[in-house]
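Shape matters. As here.
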Amino acid sequence: MHKKALVLFSGGQDSATCLAWALERYEQVETIGFDYGQRHKVELQCRGMVLDLVRSQFPQWAARLGPDHMLDLGLLGQISDTALTADKAIAFEQSGLPNTFVPGRNLIFFTFAAAVAYRRGISVLVGGMCETDYSGYPDCRDDTLKALQVTLGLGLDTRMVVETPLMWIDKAQTWQLAHGLGGDALVEIIRRDTHSCYVGDHTTLHDWGYGCGQCPACELRARGWAKYRGEAQ
């Protein structure tokens, strides 16, 4: 029944892994990205490079990889006062959440993605949200996304499926999943050509990829890489 998928593809490690996961499972896969005034806008430049590399290095996936969609959601950045949308130090708020939390971001992303999917005849939305090692963002929780799946289906009066293949695995397992899907070639693309650093540093190359090495996203990625490499040896 579900043969087409739309992947929420930011250009980062998680969404790139989810893209490969979807390409292994669905006959046609399209991608969608969002420009919401993010501080790490370099991720948008990485998106095209990663898509080109997937097409050129994985011919078995190239025929399945369809159009890429980019939406301007600048209004989200305008109403947000966060460390992801403004040049401010990353810190924790009184709520216990880091100030990198952009309220409503994933809810908005999935709603717009569902509208595009509906128009394209796509019934599956794939996102890289995870509860295992994350910053506590409430819109990354499994319960949130299950509820959203129901809401989208009711609102569009059609069956919509929200897939989150990384929900219950940590970053080391995400690296392992990427290797299982595309071997060393995919791992190297993710390591060198994706971007996850909140600060937007895409000039400093570490063993695990580009980034400032100090923000929460870099720390997660680095720890996951070290554990992945340790288990692989």
About this structure: The CA atoms of residues 105 and 123 lie 21 Å apart. The first strand starts at residue 4 and ends at 8.
